[in-house]
Design goal:
Elements lengths: L2 H4 L5 H11 L3 E2 L11 H13 L11 H15 L5 H4 E4 L2 H12 L5 E6 L5 H7 L3 E6 L9 H7 L4 E7 L11 H13 L3 E5 L25 E6 H4 L8 E5 L1 H12 L7 H11 L3 H24 L2 E4 L6 E9 L6 H12 L1 E2 L1 E2 L12 E5 L4 H14 L1
Parallel strand pairs: 1-11, 3-4, 3-5, 5-6, 6-7
Antiparallel strand pairs: 2-8, 7-8, 9-10, 10-13, 12-13
C-alpha cells in the first residue's frame, strides 16, 4: 500500500462524527449547514436533470457556467477573466486542489503550507512528490510572520498553497499580509494555489481581496472557488478554477484524468445561482452572522473566551483563558462530546508540526434551536 495513505490516521472529522453518533451529540464538528440550501437553485438542478442533458458535458465545464463564473468575479471583484482560456469547472474544490498540485509539482519541489490547514493539503502535496515547508499561524490574529517566510522560501520553492479566508481560524488575511506574501512568491518565481472557497462567507463588513486581483500575482495564481460554500450546498461538489492560460491548460490535463467532468444538471443550477441578485449574498452573510453572534454570546456568558470569526462557518474558543483555562484542546473536545454530548474539533488536528493545542472549533452554521440546545448541554457541563 502507498504509505502516504496507508499510514495516514483517520481524519479528525470522521473521528468526531463517529463520537457524535456514539454519544447522541449535537454535531458542531463537521462544517455543513442544517439548512437545505436555496430552493430556486435546487429547483434549477431538478429541472435540468429531468429536462436537460445528462450525458458527458464538456471536460472544461458547460459554457453557461464558465461564462457565469467570469461574470460573477467581474461583478464582485472587478476581475477580468477569459471564460474560454482562464476558467474551468471541477467536481468540487478538493478535486481542483488535487489536479492543481499533481499538475504543478514535480518530485523534490518544495511547497509552502500555512498551518492550521485543511486536512487534504498535506497528503495531496506528498502524493504529488512535493516536500512541505510550514509557516505556523497563531491566535488570535493568525497573521503572517515575515521571519517564517524567510525561513521556508528558497530556490526549490515551486508552489505556495494558501487558504484565504482561512478555514480553521475563521480569519481573513490583511492586505499587508497578502502583499508581503506576494513579494516572496514573485522573488522566488513560485506559483500560488489559493483556496478561496469561503470568499462569500464573510462577516462584520470585512473586506476580502482575491489574490488573483494582486497585479504581481495575476499570472502566477490559480484561484479555487466552491459553489458548495457559496450556496450552502456542500454535497454538490462543484468547484471553480481560474488562472492564466499557461497555468490552466496544464491543470486541465490533470482534471481530465481525475474526474473528467461534473454533473451537468448541477453545473446548470450553479450557473443560474451565480447570477442571483446581491440580496441573496448579503442575506446569506447576515443569517450566518446572526447565528455566530447568538452562539458566541452564549459561550461568552458561560465563561469561555471566544475568538471572533470574520469568515467561514466556524467559531473558535481559546482555552488559554476563561473557563477550562489551560486544558488541552483534544482533552476538552473529548470531555465535551462524552459529558455534554456536543461535538467540536480540536484545532491542533490542522497542524502537521509545532501545533497550537489551546483552540477548539465549533460550526455555527446551524439553526438557532440546534445552537441553543448545544449551549444548554454545555451549560450543564459547566
Amino acid at each position: 500500500m502507498n504509505p502516504i495513505f496507508a499510514q495516514t490516521s483517520t481524519s479528525v472529522f470522521e473521528t468526531m462524527s463517529r463520537m457524535a453518533r456514539q454519544f447522541d451529540a449535537v454535531n458542531l464538528g463537521q462544517g455543513f449547514p442544517d439548512d437545505p440550501g436555496p430552493l430556486d437553485v435546487r429547483r434549477q438542478a431538478a429541472d435540468a436533470v429531468v429536462n436537460g442533458w445528462n450525458q458527458y458535458p464538456p471536460m472544461m465545464g458547460i459554457p453557461e457556467l464558465r461564462q457565469a463564473i467570469a461574470r460573477h468575479y467581474k461583478r464582485f471583484h472587478h476581475l477580468d477573466l477569459d471564460w474560454e482560456t482562464e476558467v474551468m469547472v471541477t467536481s468540487g474544490a478538493t478535486e481542483a486542489l488535487a489536479g492543481a498540485l499533481l499538475a504543478l509539482i514535480e518530485p523534490g519541489d518544495e511547497v509552502v503550507l500555512f498551518q492550521p490547514m485543511y486536512d487534504a493539503y498535506l497528503p495531496l502535496v506528498k502524493r504529488a512528490g512535493g516536500i512541505p515547508r510550514f509557516v505556523t499561524l497563531r491566535p488570535p490574529h493568525w497573521g503572517i510572520d515575515e521571519a517564517q517566510l524567510k525561513a521556508v522560501f528558497n530556490a526549490k520553492t515551486k508552489v505556495v498553497l494558501l487558504n484565504h479566508p482561512l478555514n480553521p481560524s475563521g480569519s481573513v488575511f490583511s492586505p499587508a499580509d497578502l502583499d508581503l506574501l506576494a513579494s516572496y512568491i514573485v522573488q522566488h518565481d513560485a506559483i500560488l494555489v489559493c483556496d478561496e472557497v469561503w470568499e462569500h462567507v464573510l462577516f462584520y463588513n470585512v473586506e476580502f481581496r482575491p489574490t488573483l486581483t494582486i497585479p504581481s500575482l495575476r499570472r502566477k495564481t490559480l484561484k479555487i472557488g466552491s459553489a458548495g460554500k457559496i450556496f450552502s450546498l456542500t454535497g454538490w461538489k462543484v468547484g471553480f478554477v481560474c488562472a492564466a492560460p499557461e497555468i490552466l491548460k496544464v491543470v486541465a490535463k490533470a482534471h481530465q484524468y481525475i474526474t473528467f467532468t461534473t454533473p451537468p444538471n448541477l453545473q446548470a443550477a450553479v450557473a443560474y445561482g451565480l447570477d442571483k441578485s446581491d440580496d441573496y449574498f448579503t442575506g446569506m452573510r447576515r443569517d450566518f452572522q446572526e447565528a455566530q453572534d447568538r452562539f458566541a454570546d452564549g459561550l461568552t456568558k458561560l465563561g469561555f473566551h471566544v475568538i471572533p470569526s470574520n469568515a467561514t462557518y466556524f467559531l473558535n474558543v481559546d482555552l488559554t483563558k476563561g473557563r477550562f483555562a489551560g486544558m488541552d484542546d483534544n482533552a476538552f473536545a473529548k470531555l465535551l462530546v462524552e459529558e455534554a454530548r456536543v461535538a467540536s474539533i480540536p484545532v491542533s488536528a490542522f497542524y502537521a508540526e509545532d501545533a497550537v493545542t489551546s483552540v477548539v472549533r465549533f460550526c455555527f452554521a446551524k439553526k438557532f434551536e440546534t445552537l441553543d440546545e448545544a449551549l444548554r448541554r454545555i451549560k450543564q457541563l459547566c
